Amino acid sequence: MSRRSGILEFAVLGLLRESPMHGYELRKRLNTSLGVFRAFSYGTLYPCLKTLVANGWLIEEAGSASEDALAAPLTGRRAKIVYRLTAEGKEHFEELLSQTGPDAYEDEHFAARFAFFGQTSRDVRMRVLEGRRSRLEERLEKMRASLARTRERLDDYTLELQRHGMESVEREVRWLNELIESERAGRDQHRSSREGSAQQDSTSGESADLPRRRENDPPPDPSDGPTK
């Protein structure tokens, strides 16, 4: 499987986890929600769907009459098929979500992974964000070194293009820094809240066995000794 087809399969599984769709809906969501897929066609999508069905990750169902009437003029007979994620497909997608290898840091794959961060655990999000930042910092260092070596030989327009590229990478690094700090702050806040709840439960437990005094009762006299 090529890297490009692997990203597409990941995105299709992720979208179908939200709700069943037919091919027209899927292509529209891929085009509008995931910018990395703006330039792909049905000729790319349907072989991918066929593979996912063969793997047991999707099933094909007949669409409703209203859906067929709406989508048939655009996609022909294919629009009659609705694709639904199977239990095995959901399990496979969750396994893909948990992966944080080097591919997750590359441009296209990172964009697809980021689109499904809402379904990804916090620890995995942190590893992907930090890996992406590290990859871009390496890229930025190489770009600066290359520019330093070739600056004198470049005309003004080529030099400006390289500067623009560096600025784009620098902006993304700053954006990643903000996301990482936000994730850390959220995790720290969750931990503090959890520890505060545990401390409150502990305090409640300690006071649970203490005798309660009614509002109109006189305060206990220390000379009377312990209450029995």
Question: Which properties best describe this structure?
Answer:
about 230 residues; mainly alpha; Arc Repressor Mutant, subunit A; three-stranded antiparallel sheet
Short description:
The protein is mainly alpha-helical. It has 8 helices and 3 strands. The protein has 2 domains: 3-101, Orthogonal Bundle (Arc Repressor Mutant, subunit A); 121-202.
Layout of helices and strands:
Elements: H1 3-18, E1 21-22, H2 23-33, H3 42-54, E2 58-62, H4 65-75, E3 81-85, H5 87-97, H6 107-115, H7 122-150, H8 156-207
Please tell me about this protein's structure:
With 228 residues, the protein is mostly helical. The chain folds into 2 domains: 3-101, Winged helix-like DNA-binding domain superfamily/Winged helix DNA-binding domain (Arc Repressor Mutant, subunit A); 121-202. Helix content is 67%, strand content 5%. It contains 8 helices and 3 strands. The protein has helices spanning 3-18, 23-33, 42-54, 65-75, 87-97, 107-115, 122-150, 156-207; strands at residues 21-22, 58-62, 81-85. The chain has a 3-stranded antiparallel sheet with strand order 1-3-2. Helix 1 packs across helix 3 (42-54). The radius of gyration is 28 Å and the shape is globular.
